[in-house]
Design goal:
Elements: H1 3-30, H2 40-55, H3 66-75, E1 81-85, H4 93-96, E2 104-108, H5 116-128, E3 133-137, H6 143-150
Parallel strand pairs: 1-2, 1-3
Length: 162
């Protein structure tokens, strides 16, 4: 191999490793685990108090303006709780707990089941973002459990139209 090809190969390998390390180098910017400075008990109390406020019709809708979007984009997200909930469109933890952008790390999955991907997301919230509380939020009358019980037909079981 001639000298010019060796140099080109060295540059390609360097570029590859830089691209490989870029997410690690930028991770403090994108999501930093500085924590929120509150205890797990305080995080739980905060969710309970804000949920009560929501149900009483006194929601404050905090942290929803452009300055909060800018703050979380430039300074990273610092949620105080990780919440796993159903992907049902009627269940919105940010609304039910009267929270705003970057306040809670929400994982949504149909049927509220946990598999490898969801576990990875939970680990990200708890370990990397250092959330102080992990909450499993369920609800009644899940569409997925209804389908399991009544054996709903799925799209691939219907005959083709046309």
């Amino acid at each position: 191999m001639d000298h010019q090809k060796l140099i080109e190969r060295k540059y390609l390998l360097s570029a590859f490793f830089i691209l490989l390390l870029l997410p690690v180098l930028l991770s403090p910017i994108v999501a930093s685990g500085d924590g929120t400075g509150i205890s797990p008990a305080e995080a739980q109390k905060k969710l309970k108090d804000c949920n009560s406020r929501y149900f009483q019709g006194n929601a404050q809708h905090p942290n929803l303006l452009s300055d909060r979007r800018y703050q979380t984009t430039t300074g990273g997200q610092h949620p105080f709780a990780t919440v796993i909930t159903c992907s049902d469109s009627r269940v919105m933890p940010e609304v039910a707990f009267d929270q705003g952008i970057g306040d809670v790390f929400v994982i949504r999955v149909a049927g509220n089941v946990v598999d490898v991907d969801e576990i990875g997301s939970i680990e990200y919230g708890v370990d990397h973002l250092e959330t102080q509380l992990f909450l499993v939020l369920g609800h009644r009358n899940w569409g997925s459990s209804h389908c399991r019980r009544y054996r709903c037909r799925t799209a691939w079981q219907y005959p083709a139209v046309g």
